[in-house]
Amino acid sequence: GDQVKQSPSALSLQEGTNSALRCNFSIATTTVQWFLQNPRGSLMNLFYLVPGTKENGRLKSTFNSKESYSTLHIRDAQLEDSGTYFCAADGTGNTRKLIFGLGTTLQVQP
Amino acid sequence: EAAVTQSPRNKVAVTGGKVTLSCNQTNNHNNMYWYRQDTGHGLRLIHYSYGAGSTEKGDIPDGYKASRPSQENFSLILELATPSQTSVYFCASGDWGGGGGQNTLYFGAGTRLSVL
Fold this sequence. Notes:
The complex is a heterodimer. By secondary structure, chain A is mainly β.
């Protein structure tokens, strides 16, 4: 968790609002991945990023390799967005092995 | 969508017993991984594999062995289970995109192991 730090650790949002999750890296990394673990425990990949930005529906993610951080923006939060969001870095430059952060637990309230 | 299937989904074992967790993927991914997830530690890598016949130590390999007999199957073996190995275990697989290096991970549903 020290090499990949996520903030905040927990977050509560009202439905329809926006927020941003952040991942800071203390290691050099060439790619970043974001995952969502839903309340039932299933892990789903959201984004695979090289430096730059990707968007998918209400989610947008940016990876800034020069400043060693990544963000995940959630727009118009919905109840089904609740869960724990993990970012992961390939700190060795070998994308076959990822280092995970400890996660941000998001609860979207009606 | 990649399919990664783990079995069993739940397991209760006794201290000192042998436990085998199985993982099967049907998408011809080269790389497979075993993680454990514990509160306060996130996902930690136990063993991984680049392909059939290969196993590599991850960050916390002690007390675990792995076996990759085929492209599709990757097992995690606890020869002498201990209560500290009580956890949720996730298997994952990923593409290796050659020069591109794309390796999006696809996870199984997890195995909840309790060692009494």
